[in-house]
Amino acid sequence: MAITKAIKNLKVHELCEIEGSKEKNIRFNQNITELWFKASPLLTSPVLKKVYIENYPEGELLFESNTSALTEYTNMNPSKQQFLAIEKNQYFKLKKENKFQGLNEFEGKYYLEIWKYDPNILSESIAQESVVDPLSLYLCFTDNQDERIKMALEQIIKKYIYGNRDR
Fold this sequence. Notes:
alpha+beta; 16% strand; two-stranded antiparallel sheet
C-alpha cells in the first residue's frame, strides 16, 4: 500500500507517468537534473532525531553521515565530531536493549542521527561502504547556513545531478 501511495504522489506532482492498470510501470520523463530540481522542494531531511553516544554496539551497521560523510563526496575537511546514521527501528531496538553507552542529547564521542529510512537502501550502489548516499546527505543540510557546508552541497549537486544530465 505504501508503494501505491508513493507512486500516486509522484504522479500528482507530475514527476512520473504510470503505465498499465493491473501490473503498473512508472516512467520518468525528465532527465536526472530536471527531475531533481522539480522534486527537491517536496523532499525532506531523512533525519528523525539526533542524539549523542559514547560507544555503539559492535557488529551493528552504522553509516557515516553529516560532515563525516561530506568529506567522502567533497573537498571539505573532516570535523572533530564523528557523525553516524542509523535506521529508526534499529535504533529503538538497540535502545530498548540498552546497547548504547552514554546515550544523551548534549554531548558524546559520536553524534548519532536516527533516520526515517534505512541509509543502506540508497547508499548500497552509490556510496562508499558505510557512508550515506550523497542526495540524502544533501537533504540533511537544506536549512544549514554555514558557507563551508553550502559550498560542499554545491559540489554534490554538480557531481551527482549536473554530472548526470543525459540520464
